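Summary for the funding panel

The consortium committed to producing paired sequence-structure records for every protein in the target list. Below we show the first two records in order, beginning with the earlier of the two.
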Amino acid sequence: MTYVVTDECVKCKYTDCVEVCPVDCFYEGELMLVINPDECIDCGVCVPECPIDAIKEESPDLIKWVEINKELSAKWPNITVKKLPLPDAENYKYEKNKFEKYIL
């Protein structure tokens, strides 16, 4: 099993998770982060670091997110250092279906 970044990250992009990752498997897009599922070692240390619960363990209902994370991590640059979240992250924290609205 792997961990994936889900919809909650979109328009927030908190990066607390990237500094604790022992294998540097996070990748950064303009509006969110993703995890390369082939690089993730399933340690889970990133999960408690995410202030908006955007990182989830792979499960049958998250297969879509595994594919999204895999596809985007191949296109986006690796991130290993914490940065500030997006300036208006607090405004988007609880919005639903952000990926379809802002990324697609």
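The next record, for a separate protein in the list, is shown here:
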Amino acid sequence: MQSELRKKLLDAFTNSKEEYLSGQYIGDLLGISRAAVWKHIEELRKEGFELEAVRRKGYRIINTTKNVTADEIRLGLKTQFIGQYIHYEDRVDSTQKIAQRLAYDGAKEGTMVIAEEQFSGKGRMERAWHSPKYTGAWMSLILRPKIPIQNAPQLTLLTAVAVVQAIEEVTSLSPQIKWPNDLLLNGKKVTGILTELQAEADCIKSIIIGIGINVNQKLDDFPHELQAIATSLAIEEKTEVNRADVIRAVLTNFEKLYILYLNSGFQPIKLLWESYAVSIGRTIIARTLTGELRGKALGITDEGVLRLEDENGKIHLIYSADIELKEK
């Protein structure tokens, strides 16, 4: 986890509006000596930050790294609690597993686990998620909402909206959501979301939301079998995208929507979700554990359950399924 001193230092640079911060000011703020200030500055330099030091003025950050370390994400992040505690790893089997352990050990709400690479990332139904190094945003968020356990799937839909809004802010792209947890660009998957519970009886202990965003992969970075169905922001934008900018935008939009959800319920999230949904009004095939249903997707219920109308006019409620979109 990031140290509290490092967090305060990066918050100071974030709020400085690119003005210089004197060594004296930083020392007083952090309660450390000038020598200790210099040590923190050198650690940032070693991490890849480009800092300018001017006599009688102080320090300012003039360029950042292209990594997604805790320090890189923290610089410029202005959330209240989402992402304020960051656990960073270079290479992990799965950010979900680390987040589950941290949540069990009492990690604060909003804690984020992020890695440069996952070698055993998973999506829904235990499907492998391809997570190559230095290309995407592979992260998990720890939440502790006081909501009924049956409402937990609503947070998957909320997360999808937050990621769409983040991508729209950082790029010129406009993703669409395919129920329940996929984001598409030009019909290809760019983001997956996995929501897992830690609960006892009817009480939620924590909810772990895993988010995988393909940011800077080239086509050849995907396994051959995924090249026809997966894409990245860089492929669609035709230029490299700053991963830390995407992550900060996700955290900022998620917090805004999460606070709205806790205060006002699911209805405003539902309206936003449906405005981004690719399947509403489309003919779909829903493959469930008990069989296959074909019909028109009508939208979602107030609980986030998909409503499907078959050819006989009967309405089916789909709680969990793989969705195939048919041609318009």
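Regarding this second record: The mean pLDDT is 91. The longest helix spans residues 243-264.
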